[in-house]
């Protein structure tokens, strides 16, 4: 099965000792695209290096996570993000709002997010958004982003129907992780209503390993478990779901993935 991992932290210290083997396992399982998240200046540099080491398979992003939003500098961070985009970053983020942990003051989170939305509008790159317990402000973000012509994805989606509808109305995508394999997951009806060209699959590795690997360090080779659950919920062949989520990932991030022959899905062209 061909698939994309639309959100993976390969630059995380958890993969420092064996990232090459992790990428090789993902490729062996059918990975055609791995979007490596640069959620800080440091990880963005490492993500860029991995993309250079694995051209055509690993792609990188650049941004600042809401957990670190207190560090946001309106000069230094935009300069770093612009540099990342100039060097091939396919998106800005992971950025967003996290009112569950509140590791950064909320006003600082909103300032950092506003700055990155502006950079997305300036550069034409999509946004990768983390949102937790911040629904009203995220809905406002989607409204403002739509007005600015900015697209993006709500990653590791576990939000409400209201938030999903706001994202889809703004032209955004929704990405689902290994959480869909957990017993407590209850969003099957929502997943069935998402258009095929707006649905993404991700690992969020090293976090959120799917069943039966829950509790272990996650890796992109296990994304097919998530895709299989999405396919079962949607009532489509797993190969079709893999190809459709791959195509949607390529379209959002503008990835130059060359399609292979398949009876499922649409051509993988951005």
Amount of beta strand: 5-15%
CATH architecture: Alpha-Beta Barrel
Structural class: alpha/beta
Tally of domains: 1
The CATH C-level class name: Alpha Beta
**CATH structural fold name:** TIM Barrel
Radius of gyration, rounded?
Answer: 17 Å
What's the main sheet like? Answer: 5 strands, parallel
- What global shape is seen? globular
Low-confidence parts: 263-267
Sum up the structure in keywords.
single chain; 270 residues; alpha/beta; five-stranded parallel β-sheet; three-stranded parallel β-sheet
Topology diagram in text:
Blueprint: E1 3-8, H1 19-28, E2 31-36, H2 41-53, E3 58-60, H3 76-86, E4 92-98, H4 106-123, E5 127-132, H5 135-147, E6 152-154, H6 161-169, E7 173-176, H7 188-193, E8 199-201, H8 223-234, H9 238-253
Parallel strand pairs: 1-2, 2-3, 4-5, 5-6, 6-7, 7-8
Explain this structure.
It is built from nine helices and eight strands. By secondary structure, it is α/β, with parallel strands linked by helices. The chain has one domain (3-253): Metal-dependent hydrolases (TIM Barrel), CATH 3.20.20.140. The strands form two sheets. Strands 4-5-6-7-8 form a five-stranded parallel sheet. Helix 2 (41-53) links the parallel strand 2 and strand 3.
